[in-house]
Amino acid sequence: MRIDIITVLPELLKSPFEASILKRSIEKGLVEVHFHNLRDYTDKSYNQIDDYQFGGGAGMVMMIEPIDKCITELKSQRSYDEVIYMTPDGSTLNQRMANSLSLVENIIILCGHYKGVDQRVRDTLITKEISIGDYVLSGGELGAAVLCDAIIRLIPGVLNNETSALTDTFQDDLLAPPVYTRPAEYKGLKVPEVLLNGNFPKIEKWREDQAYERTKKLRPDLLDND
Ligand code: ADE
Predict the structure, then answer these.
(1) Which pLDDT does position 173 carry in this prediction?
(2) Which helix (H) or strand (E) element contains residue 67?
(3) Same domain, 198 and 95
(4) Protein residue with least CA distance to atom 7, ligand 1
(5) Are residues 200 and 126 in the same domain?
(6) Residue 162 within any structural domain of the chain
(7) Structural domain span for residue 40
(8) Is residue 160 part of a domain?
(9) Among 13, 22, 51, 152, which is most buried by a count of CB atoms within 10 Å?
């Protein structure tokens, strides 16, 4: 998979890709991540990429021209499955979206700033708008990092034990069951007996029941989905 991220703040975005699972997935060649500084695509003085909004109002708007130039250049080199715009008014990211995006070849992610981008960018260049939650960040970069992490860990070969992604919370619309490790008893706190007896069908049944009970208690909304 190849991910191209268009940003005015590449330095804010780089560190999540320089540690742990994301770093290893890049080193293993399972994913390529490229950063494009939007300021490299403007002819304006001071590398200007934003301007006042027509009609008045507080806040600057990112101009269409540098964004169009950057996306057009990328599209001239390969085809893209999605051009994603990170914005608080997009569809809220969930596991299902991460699963489906982990299957594609090439994506572009555009990070918004200020009051956002000129509407004509959204109307003509963007194929998907994604929010990471109902709150406003200073820019799309942190959202893009969250999106990339959620996608990249699902690419086959990224996690050592592939089944561990399949048993994550939210796969199957259920929260994950509780997990325990040694010691079997700590300050009188005991690990459930069923996990210690090696009866794997029974353990599996216990985990399924726990996942369902936890979901019913903590996130009943997940059980309403069809
Ligand atoms: N940019 C600003 N806020 C955002 C959010 N909640 N999700 C994605 N991008 C954003």
Answers:
(1) 87
(2) helix 64-77
(3) no
(4) 131
(5) no
(6) no
(7) 2-152
(8) no
(9) 152
CATH of the domain at 65: 3.40.1280.10
pLDDT in tens, 102-119: 999 999 999 998 789 999
Ligand 1 atom nearest to CA at 112: 1
pLDDT tens readout for residues 35-85 = 999 999 999 999 999 999 999 999 999 999 999 999 999 999 999 999 999
Whole-number CA gyration radius for the chain: 22
Secondary structure string (H, E, C) spanning 169-224: CCHHHCCCCCCCCCCCEECCEECCHHHHCCCHHHHHHHHHHHHHHHHHHHCHHHHH
Q: Is 132 annotated as a binding residue?
A: yes
Atom of ligand 1 lying closest to residue 86 CA: 9
Residue 32 and residue 91: Cα distance in Å, rounded? Answer: 25
